[in-house]
Structures are given as structure tokens and as C-alpha cells.
Fold each of these.
Amino acid sequence: DGSELVEIQNYANAKYAEPNEEMFGLAKDRNVILITLESLQTFVMNNTMDGHVITPFLNELSQDKDTIYFPNFYHQTGLGKTSDSEFIVENSLYPRNGSAVFFTHSGNKYQSLSSRLGENGYATSVMHANNRSFWNRDIMYRALDIDQFYDVASYDIGENDAVNWGMKDIPFLEQSAEMMQHFQQPFATRMILLTNHHPFTLDEEDMYIPKYTSNSRTLNNYFQTVRYMDEAVKLFFEDLKEKGLYDNSIIVMYGDHYGISENHNKAMGMYLDKEITPYDNAMLQKVPLFIHIPGSNKGEVREQLGGQLDIRPTLLHLLGIESRGDIQFGQDLFSEDYDPFVIFRDGRFVTPEYVYAHEICYDTETGEEVDIANCETSFDRVSEELDYSERLINGDLLRFKTDQSNGENGPTLQDGKPNPE
Ligand code: GP9
Ligand code: MN
């Protein structure tokens, strides 16, 4: 019944962070272009491999006067990988532990980012050059209220246009920009890249830098496909400008999950020139987040912690859309009340002081082991939040929530019971 929802709603209400006045509505009425940068981890940013810059365009973008760049931002995905990141961005909920929510709970009721945007006049879509039923996307996208899915059938894949898992990012983004010109505005589209995907294979002609040399073929290839993706994004920005789609858009880009797993610790240790500890493995879950608002002059490198669950409230508030009363576990990254505390799906967590990983508590700054008591004080909070998210999904509890939960009096339940605040 709905009573379980009340408790979770109260938790979400208590966690709600007021928007920052200066940022609220900054991108109002703009088109939204949300790009999933496949497998991109933060360790390649502003870094080199054997003297070669790995992400020249993204480095430049991270310093741009219109980009807010988050170097201490974490993915929160589980086994569902890309699809989990989609789930998180849409719902600001944790994906499921040990299974992919896109498969297990595609029949649920959700209050997704896309549905919120749809209510506010946006034409919503996803663009991804894979088969629509892959990862159960076609079914889940219906539950997420996404108007259009431009899947592989919408693209013209020429002879040299595919590698590895499918269509290369450069032609994908090029053709996507063309389609975008015909979208009803304002639109909100999520684009999912593919080339920088395990096992990171590439055609000779797309290798802008050489391979790394270590015992891990995966890591050796990774730098090259990251470099290729960087090029693809650069060309896409040029394209948006040429097509007149740039000035009136907000472009948000994030890494969906790690590309290099712990199985490659040895090679990673060689690259980073240190022995990889559970602390380092936790730090390696950082993925870049870029919030690019052309003409805004709000650019900064923002060191604060953050996680993927924060994207939904942050973006809604930038667009001038309230999210009070929504059941979300992330917070607006720009809020004065933002509470820096990132929980991974597997129970690891990061605070400005401590990192908890593999049952060890570390000092966040130094990576030194510290007394476990420092982390223990957060255990209840972590399990409570993960548990609420899990119960919400498993019980399909959002079906008890009414739509007008934004009101001043807080949310009400469908059966008419006012929600005690
Ligand atoms: C598949 C693509 C990759 O369509 O999104 O999925 P992943 O293996 O990264 O979860
Ligand atoms: Mn992925």
C-alpha cells in the first residue's frame, strides 16, 4: 500500500536541497542535449599517455568560460552499466543491487526526468545507434515517458561507419545533429555514445594516438578510443554551432561508468605509477561531468563531490523547473544546502573526509587508512538510503504518488491522505 511510500517521501523531502537562486532557471527554455560519454573515467582528463594528450577537446572544454566542470564526480551504477546510468539520470534513484533494473522493473511507474520535461513542453527523445530492444530499452523508455527513440534504424551506417559494437561516434553524432535540426523545440534528447566501449577496438584510421604498452590489452586500447571519442565530441560542438543549435541549448555530458575494471589493477598501477589499493579503486570511479551553458559565463572547475543521482535535480533547477516533492535521492549540485556524500551502489562511499571501501576506512585527502570508527558513523545512513531506493523500486511505490507533488503543501498520496511533513 501507500503507507510505505510516506516514509520514503519524508526521507526524500528531508533531503531536498533548495535551488541556488543564481542558478535556478539559468538555462530556462533551452534545448537539452545530454550526452553519455561511454566508459569515460576522470583519470584520463588533463593527463597524458606516453606524452600524448588523451582528451584535448574535453580538457579545453573543462576550462571554458561557459562550462562548469566537476572533477570529483562519481558514477553510481551497478551491473546494469549504461542502462543503470540512464536509470539514475532519469529518476535520481539507485539502480538495483545484483541485477539490471531496466530488465527487472520496466513495468513500474516512474516520475522520470523525461516525464517532468515533457510536462514542461519539451519534446523528449533518446538517440542511440543500437537495436531498440537491446537492454530492454524500448520497454523501459515507455515507462520513463520518453517520446521518441531514434535507434539504429534511424541511422545510415556506411561501410566505414561501424567498429566494435556498432556505429562509430563521429558519424553517429553527425547524423544526430542533422536530425536534431528538425526536432520540435524545445527538445530534450539523451545521446548515448558507443565507440569507447570494451574491448575498445578501433580502425587504424581512427587512431589519433598510439596504444599504451602494458600487460592489459584493454587498457592499452582504452586511451585510443577515449581520444577518438574526444574528437567526435569536438566535431559535434562545431556542428551544433554551424546548425544554429548551440546558443540555445544546454549541453550536459557525463561518463556512465568505469571502462577499466579492477581486473586491470596491475596495468593501471603501472600507468598511474603506484600500487592500486581499494582506496584508489574507489577514486577511479570518478567520471567527468560537464555542464556547458553557452553564453552564461558561469564556467568554473568545481571541486565539490557529486554523483550521478545529482544530475536530475541539478538539471531541472537549471531549467527553472521545481523538483520539490519529487522522490529523488540526489541533490542540486549548486544548492547552498548540498550535502557532499556519495554512495556507490555496492555500499562504498565517499565524503570530504573519508572513503569507505572493502571494509577499510581511508582519509579522502591522503588515502591513508584510518580508524574504522570514522566510517562506522555513516553506515546506517548508507544502508537506509540504499534500502529506501530498493524498496521503492521493488514495491513499485511511485504508483501511489500523485502528479502534482510539487505543490506548496508538499506531496499528497493518491488515496487522498495528506503526507505528514
Ligand atoms: C549498448 C551500450 C553499452 O547499447 O549502451 O552498454 P554497456 O555495456 O556499457 O552497459
Ligand atoms: Mn556504458
Amino acid sequence: AQDKKAVTQPEMNYQAGGSPLASEPMYQSSNPKAPQMTQAEFDKARQIYFERCAGCHGVLRKGATGKPLTPDITLGKGTDYLKIFIAYGSPAGMPNWQTSGDFDEKTVDLMARYIQQDPPQPPEWSMEDMKKSWKLIVPPEQRPTKKMNDYNIANIFSTTLRDTGEVALIDGDTKQIINIVKTGYAVHISRLSASGRYLFVIGRDAKINMIDLWMPKPDNVAEIRVGLEARSVDTSKFKGFEDKLAIAGSYWPPQYTIMKGDTLEPLKIVGTRGMTVDKQEYHPEPRVASIVASHFKPEFVVNVKETGKTLLVDYSDLKALKTTEIETARFLHDGGLDSTHRYFMVAANQSNKIAAIDLKEGKLSALIDVGKIPHPGRGANFTHPQFGPVWATSHLGDETISLIGTDPKGHPQQAWKVVETVKGQGGGSLFIKSHPKSTHLYVDTPLNPDPKLSQSVAVYDVKNLAKGFTVLPIAEWAGLTDDGAKRVVQPEYNKAGDEVWFSVWSAKNKQSALVVVDDKTLKLKAVIKDPRLITPTGHFNVNNTQHDIY
Ligand code: DHE
């Protein structure tokens, strides 16, 4: 059982991040054929389901990375069979909830009965709901007309304080905290407007906050909830549309919303329910994963997880919305642009593939087989000494790093092929990063079960990958006296490309820190500690995020 836990844990911890839907009131019809449950049992099971199971099996239990668990299937299997499956897991990736010690026998029995009931349906979220949640805190006409502070705003870092529902804005030059801004719960990502003035963050609870970096003390100017659960936000970047529009994708309801870029006023909601790419069958819950703005056309690139489709949404006329639907592969997740910004590289994580999408031509360039469960974040771009420009991803499910050629003109032989596979410290990697001014490549492993690996980072010299990696003991450098996880997560460069920042992510009641490394010497440069820095996870440099530099 111990071995099994080691194998399944990185994925399990990753996908069981907790859903805000656990506390939503839901409609429930009773299924007379299912085993009896009291209301209290049902409510408890529903909460556990949304916290631990929905990430893989879906809100409606139609299946995603995990198998479908609708009553037509589960009733036939019966309580005893389901209990064994929940208790012991499966080699296909189902965690062993009982033998790992996460569930006791009673909870296993509860969940086996629960998944034979009809799935409760969370409420939808309409334009009216959005408008009710919308707060224009400082209208555009009351905002500064020029930058009113002395910060070098291009080098500010927006750092998620996951469990407190805040972001810390940190001055990258002085390493001082500028402000702690109230946001939604567990902000997933930060993105910038084209001008670099406005910062947009989205919480797991689908709350978007828009922060004006020109204010004397940068703070919220607008807020909206675009659904009940979400992960992605971005802004229009094409010439002529700078700072005009914002877009957010939601997990529930499955839809994306286009808003005004200076106020977050919602303009248009588009549902993503529809047919899957492979079997072409209806899916009621295709969640919106990563979104990126094209620099080549007035388009947003919207990646729909369960249907395996990448949508190029032309935002130039919202009243006559044109969408190019590109067939990619199922379970699209995270991704980023190549160094020329022409190609979007997105991980279809459970298909073990990267899709390369040509944003100039509006078509799929290739589907590329990589390692097990690619997880690039936005990936890393650098020039390989032999193969030219490459984009790289690390993996959640194995220790490799796949380098993919991205230069069809200059290096046609290598384009859209894995030109080299580099061995890293281990599996459980989430993020990888490089910078045009650096010759280093950083690979984290925060979800590796071995604390030695989850608390350190591997660095490569991209000019000599064969030399292998150097390990930087980031958590040790943080000098935290508390015990606990201290996961080292997400390398992020400063604007100059000569420093790399890491979060040392501890539990809510333990001390965390940010560690800054000198990129030239690979030596410790600074440790940022503050009682307000609780559960830091992602951190985003304004300039690099604004210009898609990675
Ligand atoms: Fe993330 C990116 C979804 C777990 C931190 N994460 C993304 C993106 C998606 C996503 C769709 C791409 C957004 C984009 O670019 O537009 N993440 C999910 C999940 O569904 C998942 C697996 C489970 C969950 O319940 O949320 C999950 N993610 C995590 C974590 O456990 C992390 C480490 C901490 C947390 O907040 O829960 C985490 N995800 C991040 C970060 C990014 C991200 C820091 C942005 C990377 C970047 O460089 O852009």
C-alpha cells in the first residue's frame, strides 16, 4: 500500500485541490434504486465528492481523467464492488483512499452508496448572476491619468496567497511588499493587460479582481464572479484592442465570458457543452482550461478540456462571434506560446500529448507525443545548440523533460518533433522556466513524494544539457524552522532575466517564504519572509507575463 501511495499521490494531491462547489446549494432528485442515505449522509458525501473526487470524475460524474460514475454504471456494480475500488484504487490511477489512510471504512461505504445516487446538479450562472456580483470599485474616470507611484511596475511580482484569498504585490527591485490585495479564494493565475497597467487575477471560486498598478498604492478597481469555479483569465493583446477586453473561462458552469477590459462589465457568455473530439459524443461538462491571447489576430485561444477542442474566438465583433474550432486531444490543460508567439503549445495531459497550434494560419500544426502527463505551466523557450529554437515541458507522471522543435522555417527536420528528452530529478513536476537573457532552464518537482525533490529545483545549462542538472536546495535556503511540506513551486524570472523567484509553499499554519536566486551564479540572493506571506504558490512578473516571455 505504501508503494502504491507513492505512485498515485502526486496526481491525487494535484487533482483533489478542493472545489468551491462543495458549499453550493444544489438540486437533488432521489433515485429509488440506489441504496438508502439520510440527508446528513448525502450532504457529507457530496462535500467529500467535491473536495476529493470531482477533479477527476467531473461535477456531473460523466468522467474526465477518471472513469464516468453515473448511476447507469454504478448501480450495476453495486456497493460491495465499489467499496473495494475506492478502498484499494486501481493501477489506472484511481487512488487507494482507504489503504492510504485518507478515508476510513465508514467513509468508503458512504462514498460507495453516494455514487449510486443521481449526481446533484449545481446551479447555472447567468448574465443576471454576473451583473449582481459585479462591483465597479473605482470607475475609469476616477482613476489616475498617469502612474501615481514610484514603483518600477514592470518588475512587480503578483504572488498568490492561496489559502487566505489574497495576492501579495511585491516590488521586484526592493523585495518589499507593496500591498496585500483581497481577491477570490486560491487565486490560480495572474495576467496583465496589454499595456501592463492592469493586473487580472482569478480565484478558484471564479471571482476576478482587476488591480490598477498606476494607483499610489495598487489595489482593486473592479470585481466580478463569472461562475462557481474557474481557473483562467486573459486580456486582448492584438494591435488596436490593447486593454479593451478581458476573458475568463470557468470550470462550472462550463462556459467562457468576455468582459470590458477597463471595468469587467460582462458582455457575452458562451457555453462550451458539446461533442468530444474523438468519439463525438455529447459531454455536459467541458471545463475551460488555459486561455491565451493571440498577438497575430484579434483572437482568444480557449482550450476546452473534456471535449479536446481548442477554440480561436475572434473578438473583433462580439455580435457576430466567429470561432474556429480546432480538433486537438482530450483533457487540454496548461500551455504557452513559442518564442515567436506564433504557435500555442498546449498539454493534453491525460493523452500524453502536446498540441501545437498555428495562430497565424488558425490550424493545428501537430500533435506531439511526449512523456507521461505533460505539465508545462506556460513552458520554456530556448535555443538548443544543435536543434535551434525549442519549447520544453516537464511532466507530472515521469522524470523527463521533452524538448520540441518550434522553428519550421529554419529547422524543418526538427519542427514539431521531440528533438531531445532530458532526464530530470523525478516526476511530480508542475513548472519549467527559462528566459531569453539566460542560458538556464529551471524545473521544479513540488508534487514528488520525496521531500528532497519537492523541496529543491533542478537547473540545466541549455548550452550543455548533456552535463545534467545542478540541484538548488531552495527550501533549505529559505531557513524555515517549522516542519511540514515546504514545496518549492514555480520558477519565475524578474524583468531583467538575471534573478529567479520561487515559492516555498508550506501549510496555512506554518511559515512560508519566497526565495530569490542569482541566475548567473546560481547562489542565493534573497529570502522574503513576512507573516502575511501565507501559502504562496504561483507568482507572476508583470513584464514577463505582459509580453509572454518565458
Ligand atoms: Fe493549476 C495553471 C488548472 C492544481 C497552480 N492550472 C493552470 C491552468 C489550469 C489549471 C487550467 C492554466 C491557466 C491558464 O494559463 O490560462 N490546476 C488546475 C486544476 O484543475 C488542478 C489540477 C486541480 C485543482 O483543483 O485546481 C490544478 N494548480 C494546481 C495546484 O495544486 C497549484 C500548484 C496550486 C493551486 O493554486 O491550487 C496550481 N496552476 C497553478 C499555477 C498556474 C496554473 C501557478 C499558472 C502557471 C503559469 O505559469 O501560467
